[in-house]
């Protein structure tokens, strides 16, 4: 019996490893042609639409000023731009800061929410902001984001040139990537996700997933879909599924870049990633119950998420468990020394796909990051295994006990230490242009 479970676990693991290599190849091919796509799109002089930028903000006094300053610096016609910071039932100075900016810049139009409509989480805040917006295109940024000046223009450029796209998503970079070992891991994880899962899926299947920030969606589409699901704590994944099921697609357009702050402590990382994992599991089981009503693309994406959060991590857990039990009891495993070869080969495949992703970002493929990739395999990846298992338990408990979903707002850190990074990145981009 142990051999059967081990073979099944190895099949699941290797299937995912080869699939990721396939996606990473697609991401690389997409990278090679992206500059030509941007140039072609830029030649289209179609009139720019009115844009509404929604910024949900609950107790964001540490970061909201930098975000609003980034909005001021956007290279988009201000007469066609409205920025709506949604001060969602904050009890700090968030409301004061956004009001001060609104006094100086007429295109910044704050929305202050209070219970019963306010304080329900990001989805609720976005729905309130949508009601007060007027733009043909809705853009969303988190309150810790500092998009590059041309980010919104590039998001709109993608929509103007792809009429079948309901939404366009950009790329996000880690502002505090060098703060400590954890943020270095997150930086590598972020870049790999975008070039592997986002760019790779877009290249092969014309599919990608709406992230929580730095995306644009047509107003007509989001209104047709009824806004954001306020029960979903991974509102971005849930919205992506509904967009695809409505017959649209979502374009990945990495020319639109934003910089965001990532967790700097394990406690904050755990709570944020727990929300992601539990939220994605909610989405998986929500749409599994509607399987017959889903179109081919949604079923395909549902399978990808189901495989990632259930089968793949399940395979890792089973293989770990069998390995530990075999140290205590003789399980008479037949695989023998082949397991060592598979282990080493799997590790090398992991290194190849992650390093290829890093090579697509200037200055990211270096000796320091390569060493961190090695540590990630044995440390950070195993943390994810434990987290997904914990998230599955919590989501199952929530469903069985009919508990209310609680939104966790990621704790922010003082961004003053990151100002030099912002300045350096801005000077680098200016010199490259």
UniProtKB/TrEMBL annotation:
Its EC number is 2.4.1.336. The keyword Transferase applies. It comes from the Bacteria. Keywords: Glycosyltransferase, Magnesium, Membrane, Transferase, Transmembrane, Transmembrane helix. One of its GO terms (cellular component) is membrane. The chain crosses the membrane at residues 6-29, 302-328, 334-358, 370-393. One of its GO terms (molecular function) is glycosyltransferase activity. InterPro entries: Nucleotide-diphossugar_trans (IPR029044). Its main location: membrane. It is found in: Membrane. It is an enzyme of class 2 (transferase). It catalyses: a 1,2-diacyl-sn-glycerol + UDP-alpha-D-glucose = a 1,2-diacyl-3-O-(beta-D-glucopyranosyl)-sn-glycerol + UDP + H(+). Belongs to the glycosyltransferase 2 family. This is Beta-monoglucosyldiacylglycerol synthase. It comes from Candidatus Atopostipes pullistercoris.
């Amino acid at each position: 019996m142990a051999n059967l479970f081990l073979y099944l676990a190895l099949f699941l693991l290797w299937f995912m490893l080869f699939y990721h290599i396939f996606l990473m190849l697609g991401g690389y091919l997409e990278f090679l042609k992206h500059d030509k796509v941007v140039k072609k799109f830029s030649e289209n002089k179609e009139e720019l639409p009115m844009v509404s930028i929604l910024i949900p903000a609950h107790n964001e006094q540490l970061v909201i000023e930098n975000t609003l300053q980034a909005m001021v610096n956007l290279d988009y016609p201000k007469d066609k731009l409205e920025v709506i910071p949604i001060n969602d039932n904050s009890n700090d100075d968030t409301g004061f800061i956004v009001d001060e900016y609104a006094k100086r810049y007429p295109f910044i139009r704050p929305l202050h929410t209070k219970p019963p409509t306010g304080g329900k989480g990001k989805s609720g805040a976005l729905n309130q902001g949508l009601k007060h917006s007027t733009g043909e295109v809705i853009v969303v940024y988190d309150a810790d984001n500092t998009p590059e000046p041309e980010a919104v223009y590039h998001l709109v450029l993608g929509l103007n040139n792809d009429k079948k796209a309901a939404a366009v998503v950009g790329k996000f970079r880690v502002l505090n990537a060098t703060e400590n070992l954890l943020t270095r891991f997150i930086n590598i994880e972020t870049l790999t996700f975008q070039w592997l899962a986002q760019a790779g899926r877009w290249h092969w299947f014309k599919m990608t997933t709406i992230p929580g920030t730095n995306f644009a969606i047509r107003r007509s589409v989001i209104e047709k879909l009824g806004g954001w699901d306020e029960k979903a704590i991974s509102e971005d994944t849930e919205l992506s599924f509904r967009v695809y099921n409505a017959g649209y697609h979502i374009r990945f357009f990495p020319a639109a870049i934003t910089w965001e702050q990532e967790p700097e402590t394990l406690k904050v990382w755990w709570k944020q990633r727990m929300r992601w994992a539990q939220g994605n599991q909610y989405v998986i089981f929500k749409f599994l119950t509607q399987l017959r009503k889903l179109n081919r693309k949604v079923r395909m994406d549902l399978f990808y998420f189901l495989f990632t959060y259930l089968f793949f991590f399940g395979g890792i857990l089973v293989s770990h468990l069998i390995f530990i039990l075999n140290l205590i009891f003789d399980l008479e495993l037949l695989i023998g020394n082949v397991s060592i070869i598979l282990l080493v080969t799997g590790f090398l495949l992991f290194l190849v796909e992650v390093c290829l992703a890093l090579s697509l970002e200037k200055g990211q493929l270096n000796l320091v990051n390569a060493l961190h990739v090695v540590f990630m395999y044995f440390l950070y990846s195993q943390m994810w295994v434990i987290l997904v298992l914990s998230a599955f338990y919590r989501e199952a408990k929530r469903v069985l006990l009919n508990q209310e979903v609680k939104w966790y707002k990621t704790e922010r850190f003082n961004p003053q230490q990151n100002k030099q990074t912002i300045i350096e990145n801005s000077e680098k981009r200016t010199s490259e242009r």
